[in-house]
């Protein structure tokens, strides 16, 4: 297993993700592309000292962007939706 801090890249702070924290106790993170659900669960539990009940993942393919005649592509990213045990909270998502 990789280091926990290299698996979790950053939290996803959007209207939809903050609503899922309030309604369903789910937090959303950008994670490493090669991380599986087991690795993500262990990393979140270790870093934030919470109990994760389930993990759902989603790959976001990179969009093609153009600048004049030159075309490039943004990197592909992976999102993880982690369902936390009732009563557990992560301070990053509080007050957002």
Features:
single chain; Alpha-Beta Plaits; two-stranded antiparallel ribbon; 3 helices; 27% helix
Strand-residue proportion: 35-45%
Q: Are there runs of 5+ residues with pLDDT below 50, and where?
A: none
Q: If you compute it from the alpha carbons, what radius of gyration comes out, rounded to the nearest whole angstrom?
A: 15 Å
Give the overall average pLDDT.
92
Strand order of the largest sheet: 1-2-6-3
Please report the number of helical segments: 3
Short summary of the structure?
This protein has 96 residues and is an alpha+beta fold.
Describe this structure in words.
By secondary structure, this protein is of the alpha+beta class. It has one domain (4-89): RRM (RNA recognition motif) domain (Alpha-Beta Plaits, 2-Layer Sandwich), CATH 3.30.70. Helices cover 27% and strands 36% of the residues. The protein is built from 3 helices and 6 strands. The chain has helices at residues 4-7, 15-24, 37-48, and strands spanning 8-11, 26-31, 52-60, 64-67, 70-73, 77-84. The strands form 2 sheets. A 4-stranded antiparallel beta sheet has the order 1-2-6-3. It is globular and about 55 Å long.
Q: What's the SSE blueprint?
A:
Blueprint lengths: L3 H4 E4 L3 H10 L1 E6 L5 H12 L3 E9 L3 E4 L2 E4 L3 E8 L12
